[in-house]
Amino acid sequence: MLKDKISALPKLELCSGRPWSASNKQSKLCNYKSDITDKIHKLITASFIICLFSSGLFAKEHPVRIKAEVSAHEITIGDDLVYSLTLEYPAGYMFVPPDFENVLGGFEIRKQAILPVKNKGGFFFAKYRISRYIFNITSFNAGEQKISSFTAVFMNESGDAKELPVPEITIIVNPVKESSQDQGDIRDIKPPLSLGINLLLMLITAFLLAAGIYIYFLMNKKPETVQEQAIEEEKLSPEEIALQKLQELLAKDLIKAGLVKEFYIELSEIVRMYLSEKHSVFVIERTTDEVCRDLKKIVEKKKLAEIKEFLEECDMVKFAKYIPDQIEVNADVEKARQIIQQSD
Fold first, then answer.
1. 38 located within any domain
2. Which one of 21, 200, 217, 255 is most buried, by most CB atoms within 10 A?
3. Structurally, how many domains does the chain consist of?
4. Full residue range of the structural domain in which residue 77 is found
5. Cα separation of 262 and 245, whole Å?
6. The CATH number of the domain where 104 resides is what?
7. Tens digit of pLDDT for each residue in 202-235?
8. Model-wide pTM > 0.85
């Protein structure tokens, strides 16, 4: 009886094809779900492959690119110039910097900056790197000055190297232009006056007389002990020593003799030695920027600007062959005297 009832039930079929009793509608629904599952699997697989390609695992190695440029190809003596070097190279490599002081040998480096290395490209892993070097430079030599060419070298951990030449850059450095007023104030140096025989004899006589008086006082002068001389030197302050040397320089009349450069060398050294004694800073064979950098923490901002302006004006005459007129010379002497008398 029970067997007859079971046999009377309709047959069902699963999606696998095994015989069960089910309607045709249920079979179609199962097939639809199976198709959706297959499509999801394919979409996940395709997304994974795209990520691998974007991450750079299957990508070609990034090429090396170098960009060397300057802010201007023509400047005036003493003007600032910006030289920048941008390098783009494959990830896994490291840039080996050259001797930039040798590359920029014809220029004075006033300031330099090395920007942090940036990693670029790729989804999971960096594809390439970017390094950048920036230099603020100047020149006190007129004419064509060159930033030398060099070979940029990139190394990886395995010791493999990539090299690419960086071309040289030519900079035109123009001298300081003189105004028409300055040109009109410059006069030719007068030739020395010829001395007559009588005047020459008078000068020789005066010299012998002065030498005799000097020798007489020298022989009759009570000799000072070393201790007395040391005490006498200690009495002079740095200001007094500097002002005394300034008066001795003016007494030489180097400007009238046409020795303008020599005059400014001594004038600059007097102020530099005063600053060294007064503030205990090292000035021998150092640039103006280096001296002012040491004074920055000691001297107030306004006074430091006056010192820097004075030293740079002296540098223009010493290194740039600039010839100032008498008004400028007098002004520079007065600036030196104010720096000595008013320095903290």
1. no
2. 255
3. 2
4. 65-174
5. 15
6. 2.60.40.680
7. 888 888 888 888 888 777 765 555 555 555 556 7
8. no
